[in-house]
Protein 1
Amino acid sequence: GAVVSQHPSWVICKSGTSVKIECRSLDFQATTMFWYRQFPKQSLMLMATSNEGSKATYEQGVEKDKFLINHASLTLSTLTVTSAHPEDSSFYICSARVPTGKAFFGQGTRLTVV
Amino acid sequence: GESVGLHLPTLSVQEGDNSIINCAYSNSASDYFIWYKQESGKGPQFIIDIRSNMDKRQGQRVTVLLNKTVKHLSLQIAATQPGDSAVYFCAESNFGNEKLTFGTGTRLTIIP
């Protein structure tokens, strides 16, 4: 089946620094990828839709200047959490849908801001 | 607003028994539904999907039932195994809109 790879799996950073998370589709091309955030014991909340070659579309309440998304190729989208603060600590997950419609998810990235 | 929700937040099932996880959705325009399994610290894993032109679909040990009349979705897992212990999410979308909306999740615990 399709594989979506996310890197890193976990990261610890100091408050005020920026962190970049990569999402790659390994065996298919994805013109659209999605970024989710998940807090403990909660469901996945869509943050933004990453569009190859154009600006990302952000969900209501998500700060686009804080969560920078770049989708430079058909197999790579990146999420950069800028000036991270402890409240940004969360599990970040990306996904991509194959042409048949199935959506596959990355392994997730555990971000801890100290 | 539109939402996809689950009736039961937790479910404990004896190993070997069958389990049923339910999901209610409110967007009548939704025409594509997916069940995901999420283990602790991992991303969601695709289990099975169903389109609105079907009311039942079977996979290996899993069956998804869709009742559009009452906007209800269920996941049946047969002969449960310890490895089935996880949180299960339903998700929905409509054709032409690639975004998925996730339900609140049900934690399934298989009792040895």
Protein 2
Amino acid sequence: GEDVEQSLFLSVREGDSSVINCTYTDSSSTYLYWYKQEPGAGLQLLTYIFSNMDMKQDQRLTVLLNKKDKHLSLRIADTQTGDSAIYFCAESIPGGNTPLVFGKGTRLSVIA
Amino acid sequence: DADVTQTPRNRITKTGKRIMLECSQTKGHDRMYWYRQDPGLGLRLIYYSFDVKDINKGEISDGYSVSRQAQAKFSLSLESAIPNQTALYFCATRGTGSEKLFFGSGTQLSVL
């Protein structure tokens, strides 16, 4: 079955880059997602990437995908205190018939 | 107004009580999901529905039931609540052919 793994905690200084890593097990064609959860709120989709891509950039966010190693990363440039949140990696099979499988979430703490 | 609305936002109840959590959406999506979030365990899927007459069990359906009363409404019931059902519960929706999952703000349930 599908499994998504990510480290539970990451602490960075304000202004530095943050890199949050994720590994997944399903080798089928798939979408991979990054969701952000701020305190007291639901999950918000940050970005997603299809498995035929190896990089996607959106302002301060860069997603890198190594399909061979089944490794996904989210890089946040110039990390701000407002980036403090839990970040979830998730994967799905295209077509929408399989629910997303989420990792346990990485809690990012930004130190001023 | 939120696209995916969960009620109540918070609920405290006693062991053995029947509880219903409600979710409604204005996105016109056919697919709806219930997840629970526990610290360090991430999001786990309880039930999901692809249409009004379609109900599917997720990873942790024991002790829960659901009802899809209309396309826009998907409720989660705990027939006899127990303390280990204390968690943050999220409803989510997804459109057919879309890879994006949209979340409500969550219901924090505490079972004493």
